[in-house]
Design a protein that fits this description.
The chain is of the alpha+beta class. The chain is 12% helix and 30% strand. It has a six-stranded mixed beta sheet. Strands 2, 3, 4, 7 and 8 form a five-stranded antiparallel beta sheet that branches. Strands 6-5-9-12 form a four-stranded antiparallel beta sheet, with no helix packed on it. It comes from Alcanivorax quisquiliarum. InterPro entries: DUF5648, GlyGly_CTERM.
Amino acid sequence: MNRHTRLALAVGLSVPVLLAPPLYAATSPDPATRTAAYIQLRRDVLINADLWTEQPEILAANFGFEGIIGVPGLLSADDLSLAVAAGAGVNLDWAALEPTPPLRNLTSAASPLGAAVAGFGATPQLADAMPIEVSWPLLPSSVSPENIAITLNTGDVVTPVAAALNPNYDHNERHVIVVFGEFGNRLPPGSEGAVYPQTVTFVAGSSPLMAVGPDGPVSIVGLSAPSSNPYVAGPALIGALLSRFSPAGDFPPPALMGAFPNDAYSLYGEAAQYRLRLFTSGGFSPDGVSGFLPTDFETFFRLHGHDSDGQPVILDKQGHVYDLGVGQVTIVGLAEAGAPTTGTPDRAYYVEDHDNYFDIVLEGDEAAVRLLQAVEIPTAAVAGYSDIYNPGGPGRTPAASTSYTRPALPQHFPITHRLAPHSPHTVSYAAQTLASYDLDDDLPVVFRLRAEGRADVLTSSSIVANALVTHQGYTLAQVPYANEMARPGVSDVRRYVSDSGDHFYTLDAAEQARLEADPHWRSEGRAFGAFARDWPGLAPVYRFHDPRTQRHLFTTDPGEGTRLGADYEGVAWYAAPFIAPSSAPVAGRSGSGGSIGCLSLLGLGVLFWRRCP
């Protein structure tokens, strides 16, 4: 009896029903494409995302794990027997704790509903998973299963049933497409009946898959990479970038805020000076189920460098000050795991984002930081260290008869230095038309709207922007920069309107207090989020006052104010500026925006929806 049959009997389904692919009539859109996460993940917004290489390439496309995505009936800790039957790792000992830990900490298996709510646009059943890592961030709306061809060892070429940027959903990430489908089995290569992917290729679909570089979106159709087998060797490092830390864009869409905020500044404040960002070929887990803690550096990693005399140095202690002769460096901890906690985090309850990125956070002198050369994964073969698994690993209570993905091999990966303060090798991009956005009151972009004889309006609300264009004669001038979600380090830019019709925006608390007390100004609350200080990947937004019209102007182009003859009043705030769109063809968008009704899944209380005006 195979795993499909066992699980079918466990949940009371007939085998034909259980194995039927999740196909939907072309005239009836899949409700999974109406979830908040699906819609928000497809917004064409990237903020301070790394460019790992000079040209786009697939860094890895490895078979992830088999048969554990879309386990019918898996809704709570009471259903873990279904995860075991599907071959997923489980932590049954934690399931007995009071209160019960989150289901994601008890098993790496997911229900069909869970895949839909996570934004995959489908409800797969007993599907395999594969993350595909690209060196440039993807244009979100262009991500589609039809653009991915997976060639198996049998010669068959298969297309995934689902593809999404989840769980790499922060706006400064988005280099990974996770796909679900039928890609193989757990038999080792070379054995009779073994099925596994050999090659992954980006192919032409109804519109091209796009990545975003310094000049905007470019087609990456034709890129290809081999696929390794996780039941032979576990996840690996595929990148290690050392740069000055910036919090810009380090936040998710609102529908995916479970582990937010987890950026280095939110965890460590001013100690977050440098970021060694690790890019992995699969999620990293201490057991194949649970997540990493911010305190886990000493358990899984160590750094290699040399001192000013050229002598090798190993940095393996979190919080220890290392003197390298030209300055000091300290490993502060890990970031990009979960949100700050009080006291020592408990792994059974700690909520991690389970994506492909980890930050080793450093503070110290730049001269010393420049002497770091490599990051090592020692594995459990070295005393004091533990193995790393991907999400197909065994968990704390594995089943003796089940094959799980293997732990990572020992690794020694070179560090790429990008410490120049004004050359962060990142990109920020946003679609420049209102029609490109769903209707929402708080998008991750700022719209700048203009009307003859009136003050400009800055807003993060596409609802407000569309109303101004439709009913009040405004036009969209540009989508100039990002709106940062509220978190440590981000300031609220508040909007005020004068009796004469001037619009004034400020994050300065003293100015806000003065305007609140002035009867000639009316507060309209928070307009968007920005930074009061400069960080890599940001640009100043300048404030001008035009004495002829008595109106204020806010612009990233200082020449704009000069050409108007306006008086310069300084830097108003800092924000991630979006590059101007290139002439390259941009993939078409489907199902993004418009007004349709909202519905719920009865009995489960989970909302499927599109934004309604």
